[in-house]
Amino acid sequence: MKRLLKGGRVVDPANGRDGAFDVLIDGDRIARVGRDLPIDIDTSVVEIPTGFVVCPGLIDMHVHLREPGQEHKETVATGCAAAVAGGFTAVACMPNTVPVNDNAGVTEYVLKKAAEANMARVYPIGAVSRGQKGEQLADIAELRHAGCVAISDDGHPVATALLMRRALEYAGMFRMVVIDHCEDQTLKGDGVAHEGFSASTLGLRGIPGEAESIMVQRDVALAELTRAALHIAHVSAHQSLDAVRYGKTRGAPVTCEVTPHHFVLTDDMLASPRPYDTNVKMNPPLRDDMDRDAMLNGIVDGTVDAIATDHAPHHYDEKDVEFDRAPFGITGLETAVSLSLDRLVHSGAITLARLIELMAVNPARILSVPGGSLSEGAPADVTILAPDLRVTVSVAAMRSKSKNTPFDGWQLRGGIAATLVGGRVVYVNESVNLRM
Ligand code: DOR
Fold first, then answer.
1. 400 vs 71: CA distance, rounded Å
2. What is the model's pTM?
3. How far, in Å, is the centroid of ligand 1 from the Cα of 283?
4. What domains, with CATH codes, occur in the chain?
5. Distance between Cα 357 and ligand 1 center (Å)
């Protein structure tokens, strides 16, 4: 079956396209992109409303799907439903499941669940170390052959420089990137919030930005030493971005991501509007104005390569405890695009094309997975954005199993109209006027 997306603004930075084009999908592939494409008898035509944007499917390279083992928080199926509602056609899922994804059995289980869910594409990320204990390397070849696209001990840092060096060397042989959650545990101690005015006022133990940046500096040096691809997860501190920038100027193969919460929120949220709200507790923590502005500048100047959500669902009961005792993390799949359009594009900080680079082109490149472009012959993974849609974030309407977001009730400009994976319509926003 053929489907023609007719009349939209196509933004496809990988092919240098930004303008009025039609996109013809044949089966699960992009067949043609052009102007006034001929319509065959077997082609169904989708009229794209003025102002809507057709772009390559967005890829979230950092999510926690919690299955196996923590299905009360999220399953692969509910996470994938949240992903497509948030405009993501693919997600890469972290290995801190129970048991840890450090062997082919767990990887294959996740892929089987993803095939059953049949919504977003799922790319498992294997563990760096067995059990994420930071002691022995996991069997990286086995993880690669089972379908992992990268390795990470996310949730935990790779504590020793030697293990990180070996991880880079082995992963490099299999053309996999190592994604590091950078945090010096000795400096973090039992901190729960950014070390600064807000934490002090509320009597919360602090985590300085240096707890992150010291390890980013180490990793950048190791990437330069090994020449193997390194990706820094959820950068939050201005010192860390400086380290990445320095590494890039020296030609080190380093990339990094920033989450929407770290470029939108600051640690002011610890005190107001709801003091001690556990939905603003995440790791790394929300930092101060200077750090938030540094993230924005990094997005503008190209230091930041990707926007990733670190979607970290937790059950209501787990978050409904004292701040100190709550788990770190917030959901992100269903708010990322609206926050990014509102705060980055409508504010004039970046163009829509740059946003697509950050959310589709670069994640595909960093993970070496298909997608990130609307090239002829590419998989027909397509996101249709409604950049001017007025969106009120509603946890009640979310598809994720967990509701731990600080953005409930926020009014934002920009949302998702529809999501297609392999040519199949997997999500249509009922509040927009689009007949698929
Ligand atoms: O806030 C976080 N939550 N940061 C992480 O690195 C892990 C994640 C989780 O798994 O809940």
1. 11
2. 0.98
3. 6
4. 2-54+379-428 (2.30.40.10), 57-367 (3.20.20.140)
5. 25
